[in-house]
Amino acid sequence: MYTTSGNDALREYRQIGTTSTVGESSPHRLIQMMMEHALSRINFARGHMERQEVDRKGKAIGDAISVINGLQVSLNHKANKRMSENFDALYAYMMRRLLQANLDDDLSILDEVYGLMQELKEAWDAIADDPEVIAATGAGVEG
User: Fold this and answer.
1) pTM of the entire structure?
2) Are 82 and 21 in contact (CB under 8 A)?
């Protein structure tokens, strides 16, 4: 019983910290945080898949898909249509592949999507000052 309330308190503390961090972050940093979260969810899914924890695997993959969907819907198609369409297609591909990984229990697909997201995040980290890319991805739009 103590463990449960301790876990609940820890979860609440983390939520408060996350909410505070999100509220203080630039739009560019918010995209970074979403990418980091997607990567962590894919990592969790991998571990759950290896341990044959079907429910947890499905939840982690679902969470990763939700984050990627959030990245996709935040795209600004008016700023740079071609670039935003490329991001849109990449996000759609990643979500389809994650669904397939879940259905087939395929670690190699998780690794593929993880690699794509990691590469995208590294590029995103490097373009912090490129206004055209930031505008096309929606990170320059204050909401």
Assistant:
1) 0.76
2) no
